[in-house]
C-alpha cells in the first residue's frame, strides 16, 4: 500500500476502524502509509510508540538507539523479554516489529545520536516526515530540538518520570511564533529527573507513549491543534495541565538573539501560576 494511491481490500479490513473516522478516511490512511517517522530512543516511550505507529500503518519508521536491553527495562519496554538482554534495542525492536507489521518498512540505527552523525541519521526525504523524541537524555533532547528547528521538521517530544509526564509539540513551520524545547529548558539548565534517578511505573510510561503516538498521527493527518503547546500529566491525580509555549526572542535556537546562554536571558519562561494555564 505504501506507494499506492488507493487502499487494497486487505488494507480496508486491517485499518477499517481507523478509516471509519471522518478525520482519517481512505485519504488519511494513505497519507499515514506514505509517512516517514524517526523515533529517537527505543526505551520505555519509543518501544510503545513504534509499535502503535506500525500498527496504525505508518509506512516507514526509523529507530535510533545505541543502548542495549537490560533486565531493569523489561517492566516498561514490552517489546523485549529476557532473551533480548544484552542486545541492541533498535535492532531487537526492528526485528520484532518487522515480523508483526509487514506493511511497515523499518530501519534500525544501532548507535547513539551525536553531533557528528545527526545530519546523516535524521535525513528525511519523504512527505509527512516527523521526529519523535523518546529519549531520557537532556543533551540528546537539545540536539534533536536544534536539528528539528534548523531543518524545519515537526517534532513531538515526550518524557515520563516518577508520576509526572510531559508532551511538547514543536512545529515552527506551521506556527513560527511557537517555542522550542530550548525555550522551555535552556541548555545550561540542570534537568536531573529521569526514570533511573526517581523511578517510574510502566503504565505511566505507556500513557505518555500513547499520547505521543496519537499526537504524531494527528499531525500526519494535518491536525495542528496541539502545535506550540506543552501538556503535563500528573499520574497521581490523573490531571492534565496545558500551556502555550511562545517562541522566546532570546532563545539561541529559534529566537532572534544568537550566542547568549539561556540563563543570561532567562529564555522561555513557563507560566508560573495555575490560572495562566489554558
Topology:
Layout: H1 9-14, H2 16-19, H3 25-33, E1 36-40, H4 44-56, E2 60-64, H5 89-100, E3 105-109, H6 118-121, E4 130-133, H7 138-151, E5 155-161, E6 164-170, H8 181-184, H9 195-198, H10 202-220, E7 229-234, E8 239-244, H11 262-265
Parallel strand pairs: 1-2, 1-4, 2-3, 4-5
Antiparallel strand pairs: 5-6, 6-7, 7-8
Helix pairs in contact: 4-10
GO molecular function: nucleotidyltransferase activity; sulfotransferase activity; thiosulfate-cyanide sulfurtransferase activity; ubiquitin-like modifier activating enzyme activity
GO cellular component, one term: cytosol
Domain THIF-type NAD/FAD binding fold: 15-251
Question: Mind explaining what this structure looks like?
Answer:
By secondary structure, the protein is an alpha/beta fold. It has a domain at 35-62 and 115-276: Rossmann fold (3-Layer(aba) Sandwich). The chain is 33% helix and 16% strand. It is built from eleven helices and eight strands. It has helices spanning 9-14, 16-19, 25-33, 44-56, 89-100, 118-121, 138-151, 181-184, 195-198, 202-220, 262-265, and strands spanning 36-40, 60-64, 105-109, 130-133, 155-161, 164-170, 229-234, 239-244. An eight-stranded mixed beta sheet has the order 3-2-1-4-5-6-7-8, sandwiched between helices. Helix 4 packs across helix 10. The longest helix has 19 residues, at 202-220. The protein is globular and about 55 Å long.
Amino acid at each position: 500500500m505504501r506507494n499506492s494511491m488507493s487502499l487494497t481490500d486487505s488494507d480496508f479490513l486491517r485499518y477499517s476502524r481507523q478509516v471509519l473516522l471522518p478525520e482519517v478516511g481512505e485519504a488519511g490512511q494513505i497519507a499515514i502509509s506514505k509517512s516517514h517517522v524517526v523515533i529517537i530512543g527505543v526505551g520505555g516511550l519509543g518501544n510503545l510508540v513504534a509499535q502503535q505507529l506500525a500498527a496504525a500503518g505508518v509506512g516507514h519508521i526509523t529507530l535510533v538507539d545505541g543502548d542495549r536491553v537490560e533486565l531493569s527495562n523489561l517492566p516498561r519496554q514490552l517489546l523485549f523479554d529476557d532473551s533480548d538482554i544484552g542486545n541492541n534495542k533498535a535492532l531487537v525492536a526492528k526485528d520484532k516489529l518487522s515480523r508483526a507489521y509487514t506493511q511497515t518498512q523499518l530501519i534500525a540505527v544501532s548507535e547513539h545520536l551525536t553531533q557528528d552523525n545527526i545530519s546523516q541519521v535524521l535525513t528525511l526525504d519523504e512527505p509527512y516526515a516527523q521526529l519523535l523524541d523518546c529519549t531520557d537524555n537532556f543533551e540528546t533532547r537539545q540536539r534533536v530540538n536544534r536539528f528539528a528547528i534548523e531543518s524545519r521538521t515537526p517534532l513531538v517530544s515526550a518524557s515520563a518520570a516518577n508520576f509526572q509526564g510531559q508532551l511538547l509539540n514543536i512545529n515552527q513551520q506551521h506556527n513560527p511564533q511557537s517555542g522550542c524545547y530550548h525555550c522551555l529548558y535552556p541548555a545550561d539548565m540542570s534537568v536531573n529527573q529521569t526514570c533511573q534517578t526517581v523511578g517510574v511505573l510502566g503504565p505511566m510510561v505507556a500513557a505518555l507513549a500513547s499520547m505521543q503516538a496519537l499526537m504524531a498521527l494527528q499531525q500526519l493527518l494535518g491536525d495542528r491543534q496541539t502545535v506550540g503547546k506543552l501538556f503535563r500529566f500528573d499520574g497521581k491525580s490523573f490531571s492534565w495541565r496545558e500551556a502555550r509555549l511562545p517562541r522566546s526572542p532570546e532563545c539561541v535556537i529559534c529566537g532572534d538573539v544568537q550566542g547568549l546562554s539561556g540563563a543570561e536571558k532567562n529564555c522561555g519562561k513557563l507560566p508560573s501560576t495555575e490560572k495562566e494555564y489554558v
